[in-house]
Design brief:
The structure holds 2 protein chains of 2 kinds. By secondary structure, chain A is mainly alpha-helical. Chain A contains 5 helices and no strands. The two termini of chain A are 29 Å apart. Chain B is mainly alpha-helical. Chain B has helices at residues 11-22, 26-42, 47-57, 60-71, 76-86, 88-101, 106-114, 118-130, 136-164, 177-186, 193-208, 216-242. In chain B, helix 2 runs parallel beside helix 9 (136-164). Classes of the chains: A mainly alpha, B mainly alpha. Chains A and B meet through helix 1, helix 2, helix 3, helix 4 and helix 5 of A and helix 3, helix 4, helix 5, helix 6 and helix 7 of B.
Chain lengths: 108, 243
């Protein structure tokens, strides 16, 4: 169970922090150029964080008590593969969910 | 995009062009907002808290990240740091829009900052680069046009998801909805070898660092992977220039 005070700290903190990130350049920096090295690092933030968020959940899913689980591993692989080939977020989601449900159903 | 003869756009027509370009994204944003509403309710948030989350943060990936870490009972500081790291790309969007919108009045820029989303950024930067003759007021109007359908959809579908959330049965295996969503968002972003390297380093380090306390493994993996991506880009560029 999430404690209420902690939830609100996160909602408000994340709201203010996200706003400041969005305001940073358009508001404070104005028309000054951004250094190349910073632009280069910012380019990779999303692809650096999202896999780190997912990988442990695929390797040790909470739903199975941390044991590697074939339906979940296959679903993750299918999502990534279809996403890479089609470049379409929804095709990837359907492929992943479809694989997960099919295997959960077959192995049940 | 049809090649029309360039004529100066009025802010009004620019606004409606923005609405037209942003409109289709409702089909993408709606289901994500719905999923956030459902998962937040499953995690124990009430409808008001869930809606406040979407209004205050208005960024899908960061909200999903924060929600998951809250469920795992991660320390507050780590929840904030990780979710903000996911949102660092907003700073990049802000930077990239500045040459086009930086001359607008401060109150307009302050409002535009709140509505800097993946969708409004993607539409606007394409439009501004294609139509360099647009005036600053027309650009601002276009930008707000793109968010006019997207932002309300984000709020409304969050609310709908929260309202139906507790009625979703356990057998739907929603625990894995987030990993699938994240992977689906990730795959189309892997455009260059440097992006692939960053993602690969991220996976390896996050698994090696899984035992690090306070969920710090996520941030460690993120920082190292980001540096790996930037470094790979430099090396690849240098090779291209050298050969």
């Amino acid at each position: 169970m999430i404690e209420t005070y902690k939830l609100w700290i996160v909602i408000i903190g994340l709201g203010v922090g996200s706003y400041l990130l969005r305001f940073a350049f358009i508001g404070f920096v104005g028309n000054r150029p951004i250094p190349d090295w910073m632009r280069r690092h910012l380019r990779y933030t999303a692809v650096a964080i999202l896999p780190a968020l997912v990988a442990p959940q695929v390797a040790w899913p909470a739903a199975t008590g941390g044991d590697l689980d074939l339906p979940r591993l296959a679903a993750a692989t299918a999502t990534l593969a279809v996403g890479l080939v089609t470049r379409n977020v929804f095709a990837a989601i359907f492929a992943g969910a479809g694989t997960l449900y099919l295997l959960l159903f077959m192995l049940a | 995009m049809p090649a029309t003869t360039p004529k100066t756009q009025t802010p009004r027509s620019a606004f409606w062009k923005g609405v037209k370009d942003g409109g289709p994204f409702v089909l993408v944003v709606g289901p994500f907002a719905l999923l956030f509403g459902v998962l937040a309710t499953e995690a124990g948030l009430n409808v008001f808290e869930t809606l406040a989350f979407s209004i205050a943060v208005i960024a899908g990936a960061a909200q999903f990240t924060a929600l998951q870490l809250l469920v795992e009972d991660t320390p507050t500081v780590i929840v904030l740091a990780s979710a903000l790291a996911v949102n660092l790309r907003m700073a990049m969007y802000s930077a990239s829009l500045t040459p086009y919108l930086g001359a607008a009045p401060l109150w307009q820029r302050a409002m535009a900052a709140y509505f800097t989303l993946d969708q409004s950024y993607a539409c606007s930067i394409m439009q501004f680069e294609a139509k360099p003759q647009m005036t600053v007021p027309a650009r601002m109007a276009y930008f707000f046009g793109t968010v006019a359908p997207v932002a309300p959809a984000w709020y409304v579908f969050t609310f709908v998801g929260a309202a139906i959330g507790t009625r979703v049965p356990e057998s739907w295996a929603l625990d894995f909805a987030l990993p699938i969503t994240f992977l689906a968002l990730l795959a189309p972003m892997l455009r260059t070898p440097a992006h692939l390297i960053a993602a690969f380093v991220s996976i390896v380090v996050s698994l090696l660092a899984a035992g690090v306390p306070y969920s710090l493994g996520l941030l460690i993996a993120g920082v190292i992977a980001m540096m790996a991506g930037a470094q790979a880009e430099v090396i690849i560029e240098r090779r291209k220039a050298g050969s």
